[in-house]
Structures
1.
Amino acid sequence: MEFILEEGKHLHEECSTLILPALSIGNVGQLAIDLLVSSMGADRVGYLDDPFVLPCVGNDAYGSASRGDLALPLEAYDSPSNALSLIQQRSPLVKGKMVEFAKSLADFAISSRKNHVVVLSSLDAGRRKRIDMSSEMQIFYLSSTHKDGTDDHCEKMGWKRLQEYNPTERKWEFLNDLAEGKFIDEGNWPSEDELIDEDYYPSLPFAALFSCFKAKGLKVTCILCYCSEGDNVPDSFQLAEATCKLLGLSISNFHGKQGGGWLIPFSWTSLYGPPPDNSLF
Amino acid sequence: MEDVITDIPPPSRFFNEDLNNFALPSPALPSPFFVFSKPDSNFPLRPSLLVVAISPPSIYLLHHCIPSKTLIGTLILPEISFSGNPIEPSHRSKSCDIYASIDDPAILFMSVQLPVAGERAYAVAKLIIDEGEIRPERVLILDSVQSRNFRGNLSADEMLVFKLETSSTSGQQMVCGVGWFPSGSMVDGLGAALLTRCQMRRIQGTLCVSWPECGPSAVALVKSLLDNSVLSKLDVRAFDGDCDVGFDRIKDSELYA
């Protein structure tokens, strides 16, 4: 993975926290990053060139002026006023390359001197084993602070540690070994037929990112929410608000919009396709 | 009626393998490479303009309306079989041939007539733009609007053309009278990989996507695009409106060699 600085731009050393999405159901992490970049008025400082990210291009996702600024698959933004960097990922990865990609991102975070990484991801609501009355808007998390994945600050905010995280369970251990670069015999690689229910969470991209950042000694917090496929905009707001809460950011101070507050990215006007053909009616 | 249980999910949603850390990667493929008719030429070639035709109408136009060109080489993807290809270059053969313009030898054309998988597009783009025997100063890519990635209305009887440009192209437009690709829609595949490569290497690059994807009207649209572009001084013959630019996916399948 190569970081390419945009012409005339530079990295801001004060941006010591990195926020990035994990590919997940409903693209919620990516939508949340869109919302944060747009609302903070974060400035694109460069691109990440990685052979495992499938290619895509588009027009500027945030500005309504539609000046033709290219949107690329993996972009880096800085918001110096919030001491944050953000990465947006717009396309999936080549099959089977998630762990390698996560390792490369971890190397980038180290080389750009980040000391905290926040990963945003959704989880499939169909996989939940326990639902209670208060769980609809419940935020879950996973942290590198303690070995069991807990973090006191997250607990105080009423978040729940992902109960399915068990670092001694086989797939979490296997993922940890991969992240630490330990040699894995091809014969020990799990076949897709062997995967059982408990393997679902460690198989998800957020788990690879968590393991790889942790293996590099970085503090990492995964912010998670359950959702189903559909209109996932409300879920993205939930994750973005949780991110601000974690980092002590005030939405009213965001610079993307006069007077602060959330600024919907311009590209979201066509998020679910064009409006219906009125001639039908 | 669509079967929501078994139908392939819409393109903006993930397949299971996209979200599986333990999915096994596909076997590694040999790298793509160029073969040139004059291997002792002075490499790398540095054309002032490289035109990459990816869409069927642009490929047809290149073969039938730009006669003043010489075949100088080809790009090989080792995983693609050439069985069934005719001896003479044709817009229907499975190949990726490179031509030099006779009118202006500083212009090269590339006709991408073989399927470049998304996973391969990065390597192919890298070879074409900055790691192979060609180092273009400017790149013009002719592709089609992809209905699966387009968030606006696409009607079969409506003609559309949009562009995306690298920041290095600002103020030095390669095509005139073409609006920006709308925000919220995306282009993927080789065309996207090429433009991305141009952006990262600070090369002037323009990607034009047109609609419809096939048929005489599509060819005429691309012809008018070229008439208002950096190629306007080239001998581009009139298109007589009669062509066999189909969109026959079955024939493109590797099952039908």
Note: Chain A has a mean pLDDT of 89.
2.
Amino acid sequence: MATKQHSPDSPVKHRHRPEGPQRHIVVFVFSIVLTLIAFAAVAAGGVNPTFAVILLLVMAVLQVILQMGFWMHLKDKGHMMPIIFMLGGFFIAGTCIIMSLYWVWWD
Amino acid sequence: MTTAHAEAANGTLPHEPEKATLEGRNKVLAFWLFLGGEAVLFGTLFATFLALRNQTNEGPSANELFHLPLVAAATFLLLVSSLTSVFAIQAMHRGRVTMLRNWLLVTVLLGLCFLVLEIYEFSVYIRHEEFGMTTSAFSSAFYTLVGFHGAHVAFGILWISVLIGQLMHKGLTVVTAPKIYVSAMYWHFIDVVWVFIFTVVYLLGKVG
Amino acid sequence: MAEAAQSLHPSQPLKHGHSVKRHTGLMDWITTVDHKKIAILYLWAGGIFFGIGGLEAILIRIQLIKPMNTFLDAQTFNELITMHGTTMIFLGVMPVIFALMNAVIPLQIGARDVAFPFLNALGFWTFLFGGILLNLSWVMGGAPDAGWTSYTPLSSTGYSPTHGVDFYTIGLQIAGLGTLIGGINFLATIITMRAPGMSFMRMPMFAWTTFITSAIILFAFPAITVGLVLLTFDRILEANFFNVAGGGNPVLWQHIFWIFGHPEVYILILPAFGVISEVIPTFSRKRLFGYSSMVFATILIAFLGFMVWAHHMFTTGLGPVANALFSVSTMLIAVPTGIKIFNWLFTMWGGQVRFTTPNLFAAGFIPTFTMGGVTGVMLASAPADFQFHDTYFVVAHFHYVIVGGLVLGLFAGLHYWWPKMFGRMLSETLGKWTFWTFIIGFHLTFFVQHFLGLMGMQRRVFTYLPNQQFDLLNLVSTIGAMLMGVGMLIFLTNIFLTSRRPADAADDPWEDGRTLEWTIPSPPPEYNFKQTPLVRGLDAFWKEKMAGHKGMTPSEPVGSIHMPSATILPFLMSVGIFIAGLGFMFSRDEFSSSIMSFLFNNYIVTALGLLITFGSMLMRSLFDDPGWHIEPEELEGR
């Protein structure tokens, strides 16, 4: 396309300062820590299974909320429709999982 | 819109070039909608896996099969690649094309490593553990869920590679920027799915 | 879109007089990205599949005209009922719904096209090739025969050893992809492309139901995608999802199918609700009663639609807790649906009602659909369902909601918007003949089936013994089906005769049009609106009429209009998926010719198909579409 190309790495004047990498690195560290807790709990063994299930799921959900909020910018303004439709998707996915846990096998 | 137009006409891109045009905004929105559908797709696959997770049909069970170090390595690779794709978008927002390209390349490489690891894992299961698609309902569900994710990674690698090529040829424009932004969303989503896979399939499989 | 075009090429002035390659004839139809032409393509393709499904229905009814009939054998009968259901739902009525959405939605919201014209074309072609693949089964070794629900293990290789069910899984997979693409496209279109002033709560009701329908498509179709993948893997790759011997569970298929399948029936009926909500106010010269409650009811129906799937499985043995839960949630749906019924009645009450053909269909819709709804509540009662399950009572119920609801709604919509789509008014006389023959035929066919079901006649069985009091009612039912066929023939005659008349429909041919599509010529020019209109309220056009204005106030000066280029890539992508699907289906077959074996057994055909598809996608990504412009001089000169 004929649109002008940026000369590589030329400093560009911005009215809005783009956000820095710091908060994304913080999210990354949090993700690593949450993942480590999950792996460690399983690797250590001897954890009560019910507690392990709850702990692992909480770690996973926290990590996903962090990543979708910050890395995918869902926390930013103007994301109402994406949030509605992602929640809708997760809701139906959750329905499917309830189905599979309770209504596929029974005595 | 008018400010975006003016800035671009001066040879500079707006702060968020992916949202500078109606086409770009439509693309980002529609991709979010698509990801909503993908959430249901993976939700159904997870549901299938959970329903069949104990149906080992006298084949290997999750506990016997999985090795946590391998999973941890794969997890780390994908997590870092998600971070590098954040850096790529930040570089894009600063208008730094070379840095953008480099971060995209790192992302693709990490994705490739993940994929190699997964193929290695599958081949070990098939060759040494006698755990194939037809072994049990559990094996079918495992390969389908994890394989669907792997196919998504593979498609993402191809996609981002094509975009790197376009970035080099066409430059960063209001046409290429939305494509790159959307591919980054896709990549993050793949990582999000993996968070659930390592939790539900591998870690909970180990717990039993 | 003009605005978008300017910002797409910011660093250079718009290319004025940019020449565009115009295709004609068949190439025009294959390469078009114009939503109005895609609407006509959907209508034609859907109409043809609807005709095939209708013929299958007539054959079924002929077989059942008398006890112990030998017109068809059991296998053919099974194939016919399977293909009748599958064809009608996925390939007959859904495309016609998409035809109406494509024809009307951009016009109703004041847009020049949908958000993604390219995807729009892709959605159509994938649907069409999926449909063709499914119907190829008739000539390639037998059609699927496990019912449209394709329950395992009946649909597993043990009981369906031919390729019939493979055509079902892969054909529906491809067609479903097209539907999903269409759904996302309409969601994005309605969210972002509304004319200035048209807030969500000023949207016409048909736009609202399209929006909600598309959302249901988005959340329901991925589930069947997975279900079909699992069944395909079971059948072709010998996986064990539904294979009890390998640890699988057939109930899982039922769940996944109905988690999709129940929302699917709301995907079908909500657009019909939208059509009725347009037709009734127009011909009552009154605004829709309870607009906001209508919107709320639509959203509630969509939500509840996902929460009721297991009412199809009451007899599976889920237990009293699950059965009670799903019973209650199912009965709840009657509440928002009842709100809608009363809103339509209150709209007509006190209005200056004109019984034109569309309004006749709409008025016929209300009691007919209500009857289907009432039997729905009966079926929702789990204990009673043990009696009704798999009998003709169920058949009567779902034909009342789908034919008596959706198809009457589609007839209303087609007669209503025909002048807008084609520039010609359908004959009112023939239209009324269509209505009366069709609706009388319909009630003859299906009303008696309630009683057949209550007396114990099972569905999906190819014949029955004499002297069980089934004989007369089945005869009546078959006569009714013939009468419905006559109604369809009158409709086709009407279309044929109309197509030979000059295209002289006025902009607002019904004279009481309330929404934006009636402010522009019939049929509209390819850019729809010369100037995007400014919307000042619900029923935007009616509001201007009441204010004494002739047309809409424009929201922009006349300017250059950017249009997307025609392209063959959507067609090629769909051809590629079609080839890949066929290749995968036959990948485990033994062929007499060694070349064929080599090509299919090594997945070479599949790879070739995927190469075409991904190659076309790459082309689309690499070569940007600059589009072309319609200049103000051209706009003024028409």
Note: Chain A touches chain B through 58 residues (CB under 8 Å).
3.
Amino acid sequence: MKTLSLTWKKRKIPSYLTENVSEDLIVLENLVKIYDTGLIKVLGLKKINLTIKRGEFVAIMGKSGSGKSTLMNILGCLDRPTLGHYYLDGIDTASMNPNELSEIRNFKIGFVFQSFNLISRTSALKNVELPMTYAKKGKKERRERAMELLKRVGLESRADHMPNELSGGQRQRVAIARALANEPPLILADEPTGNLDTAASEEIMQLFSDLHKEGATVVVVTHEENIAAFTDRIVRFQDGVIISDTYRKKEDGERSLQTAQTEQLAEELWAARPDGLREGEAARPDGLREGKAARPDDLREREAAKTDHMGMPAGIAGTDDLREQGRDSRPGKEDPHVV
Amino acid sequence: MLFENMAMAFSAIRANKMRSFLTMLGIIIGIGSVISIVSIGDTMRSLFSDLYKNVGITQAYISIGYWVDDVRQSDYFTLDELERVKEIFGDDITYIDSSAATSAEAIYKRTTVNFDYTGVDYNYIDVQPVDIVYGRYLNEGDILGRRKNVVMDVDSAQMLFGEENAVGKTFRTTIYGDTDTYTVVGVYKEEMNAFQALMMGGGAKDRGSAFIPYTILTWPNDYFYYLRLYASEDIDFSQFMTKLTAYVAKSKGRDPADFRTVTAMDEMTQVDSMMGGLSAAVGGIAAISLLVGGIGIMNIMLVSVTERTREIGIRKSLGAKTRDIMIQFLTESAILSACGGIIGILIGVGLVSLGGMALGVGAVVKPGVIIMAVSFSALVGIFFGIYPASKAAKADPIDALRYE
């Protein structure tokens, strides 16, 4: 993995921000996130390895507390991993200071949030202009680009409307236009349809699909299967680990192999983890320890699952509930959301 | 970017109109009172300076010092000495007399009016111009001949004779115990504003005033205590005074330090510095209210930062750096404060102008004071905005985004 040396100059935009460096847009290497609550240390993410290539359309799924929000924060450069590396477009974000992370967010990431997060009392146009303002782009350029983007999401007639004058679906489309402002290589959406009705949700997901077809890399964090069904790849989280990683359009066999390889690597790295972590682990509450205890069994079962035709290690969770979820998420001819 | 920040700041200020106004109120009152006090001070100074200009900035008195114990007859001045001084200093002295004045009752038929008589030379009109509305001013013949002629002002003529044109009228008065008949040869008018009238004692309308030949007032012994003179405005005044004192001292066989000089310029400088000091002191006290206003701004900015935590989170997630957020909130507090400052200036200037109009004097509002007030209020805004702005800038984006 190439790590760029950073020379920091005021007001000059470093080239790594504007140039596309790596084909692997997101590379997570042994990513660990520990939350230190003072009393106990909680493992949010347990040594995650994940690669997302440029142009992929990925859903990250999991229940509340599964670690998907933690991952979302790290992917969005809002948070830094405790251990391991996160390379975004070849840039090692672990070594960056908050202002450098701001620049990364500005140039490399377009956020779409569940609660839209438009700036109130600020017109749709101004909202879309905002990332370009922080990128120090000229007034005219900002205006033209923002208008173009609003047109792209079908809201050019609402450019002067304030967020409170727009419907939920319209607000989210403004937010998407805003996310696209600086042409970031990564669109990161956190439960983008969580506050929308079915029709609007469909609209927004269709928009993401279109963006993906135009070449954008879109990562959607969601807990809704029908939303995830729009994507090409589903990464499932539980208790801070990836429990499955499936491609919808690729051959299932090929995927399983890759998953297994990743997980084998993960297991090796887990065994070689620093002592500090092992201690932290010991201090974990029972729930987490159970999760850990279940781990070897999981893997054993996963080995067995390699031959499973289901395309995902169905037995790993050991619960009918999860098995059910897994089945639902599988792409199938009967799935109404297949694009 | 600066423009963007200002637009954002104005929109935030507009969003909470009442709150913004109440926050500004501290600054408005502070700046308003500083401006009024400093302007009142400046107006007073300019009035005094006008007053001295009216009296004559080069006016000077010289006399034997009150601290001298062994005052002799020769320490007094005589008309001959006065003439000699006039000859020696020539054009350097534009006017000189014995600085004599007295008060007496003037009687015309059954009317009695208390009169203040000022003894002057015939060319006093050159240094203290007045409008002669009827008749003429005193002439050289009146002075040399000690003629009992007077020039009185219109109001006095009205009081004593019941008409303004009193030229040729006579009245009786007693000067230094010598009762005689005096003739009005001229009537003058002097324009004074309310303040000048007050300071010149012309405010009391029940007394008459008139010019009489100063030679009458030196009578009968022809010795007098003061020399009053006006120096030419083209010469170095302090150097002239040194020369004059030296000459007078030498002619009387004394040390120059034994003579006391009082000049309009010295007095003016003294009064001016006193007024300046006073208005600075009171203005300083008023400036404390600006501090209170600044704390009000800090308080409301802290509230605003807390309220807008989520907005800060959004901005940061979109790529705003610490500095961007800092500048945004600093701009807001500076604009809030500067707006208060501008309103305060309008109110202060308005009050001073109204007061000036009411008193019939021109209010003096120096542009420097306004510039200082605006920049000071903006500085107050920036200073008291630093803490809230840095609090906003340091917010963690995740926590800020999660803030409800």
Note: The radius of gyration of chain A is 21 Å.
